[in-house]
Write a structure and sequence with these properties.
alpha+beta; 6-stranded antiparallel barrel; 7 helices; 25 strands
Length: about 400
């Protein structure tokens, strides 16, 4: 039986080809070898690309950041769910002052409305926000108001950390929660004392920051690390073809404006943030004892250590018994005699297990799962391994 032969490129046909020679065989070996080598290079590059991240995902340029704004205001128009002005004097004074600025004198009269609430207004102004642009605001009650539903925020200036007013807010408050109450029952869903106003603030003052005149840019790493900072500097220098970048500390990389980019550092920043770099990280185990959540980093390693985990259960059962006199007895009294039973149970199936040196994350998880321990016991085991000096990682307890 004749086996089928693969048709080769360049019009080579086995049926009409001449007898193979040593030179032709070497040519074919070279042809297939170069293709296998190229495939291996592409596979290696794809693997490295999957492990790498963009610079813009691991670092940010200093100055290109958001700023926090805060203000104090009044929400009006509530349906009898506002502050109690008898108890919250600040709300009454604020309402009186606002009405006086509008030309209404209310100090001589008795004013105790229930449709006004004092609130704190917060917002985040994006970088390079221009005058007249709009931003979202968050409104939260600080008094005794039970709900902000249906309320309207009066004109409220929003200030930055320097005390200057950068935006002015006003609009209808959108509340995601609600509450209802009757004579014998009440229901509440979400938080009705907090809401937001989409596009509820207008930017009145721009933050003075210009990129065009900068000669240097500073990259701030979101997770400071010396290795990652050096890799970013190396990637930038390789892309620009010059030593324009250097790490200053684990959290900062300085990039100088190279030749050919004079007066336009935005182009440099745009090109740099698209570069691929493989971030490094410290071996760390994060533990949340409140919820029992354990997060183990990829580089966590364990030295040779023996682990045993046993469950000890103590059960105390109270069975009171009643002792009373015989029927038709003229003497005696009924008493309650306590009966206590204590049982101690210990799981004897748990044996001492050895965790080998230098195990990986998956092997560590499999070994701990093989012991049959839960998250709470696993937290104690990891802390005990760290105390024994066998856990080559940091433990961070939240």
């Amino acid at each position: 039986m004749r086996l089928p032969f693969m048709r080769l490129p360049f019009g080579f046909d086995h049926d009409t080809a001449p007898a193979p020679t040593l030179s032709g065989a070497l040519d074919r070996v070279w042809f297939f070898g170069i293709h296998i080598f190229m495939a291996a290079v592409f596979l290696l590059a794809a693997t490295q690309a999957q492990a790498a991240s963009r610079v813009k995902d691991v670092a940010a340029f200093e100055g290109v950041r958001e700023n926090i704004l805060v203000g104090y205001g009044l929400v009006v128009g509530l349906k009898s769910t506002g502050d109690d002005l008898k108890k919250i004097a600040a709300t009454k004074e604020s309402l009186t002052g606002m009405l006086e600025r509008l030309g209404v004198n209310t100090r001589d009269g008795k004013m105790e409305p229930k449709n006004v609430a004092a609130v704190i207004v917060t917002a985040t102004i994006p970088p390079f926000s221009r005058q007249g642009s709009r931003i979202d605001v968050q409104v939260s009650s600080i008094g005794s108001a039970s709900s902000l539903q249906g309320g309207v925020l009066a004109v409220t200036p929003l200030m930055g950390a320097d005390g200057e007013v950068y935006a002015v807010s006003q609009g209808s408050v959108q509340v995601g929660g609600f509450s209802a109450e009757g004579a014998g029952a009440s229901i509440q869903r979400g938080v009705p004392t907090s809401g937001r106003i989409p596009s509820g603030a207008i930017v009145e003052r721009e933050i003075d920051f210009s990129l065009g005149n900068m000669r240097q840019a500073h990259l701030s790493l979101r997770n400071p690390d010396l290795t990652t900072a050096r890799r970013i500097a190396q990637a930038v220098n390789a892309f620009l073809g010059t030593t324009a970048s250097a790490p200053v500390d684990p959290g900062t990389v300085v990039v100088s404006l190279p030749e050919g980019y004079e007066g336009n550092i935005v182009d440099v920043m745009t090109d740099i943030e698209q570069l691929q770099v493989e971030p490094d990280q410290t071996a760390r185990v994060v533990i949340d004892e409140n919820t029992g959540v354990i997060v183990i980093g990829q580089d966590v390693r364990i030295s040779t250590v023996a682990v045993a985990q046993g469950n000890l259960t103590i059960k105390v059962t109270e069975t009171p018994q009643v002792s009373q006199p015989s029927p038709f007895s003229e003497t005696g009294e009924t008493t309650v005699v306590p009966r206590t039973e204590i049982t101690v149970e210990e799981d004897k199936d748990r044996k001492l297990s050895v965790v080998d040196d230098g195990v990986s994350l998956q092997e560590l998880v499999n070994g701990l799962n093989a012991l049959g321990v839960g998250p709470r016991d696993m937290i104690s085991i990891l802390q005990a391994i760290k105390a024994a000096g066998a856990l080559q990682a940091e433990i961070e307890v939240m």
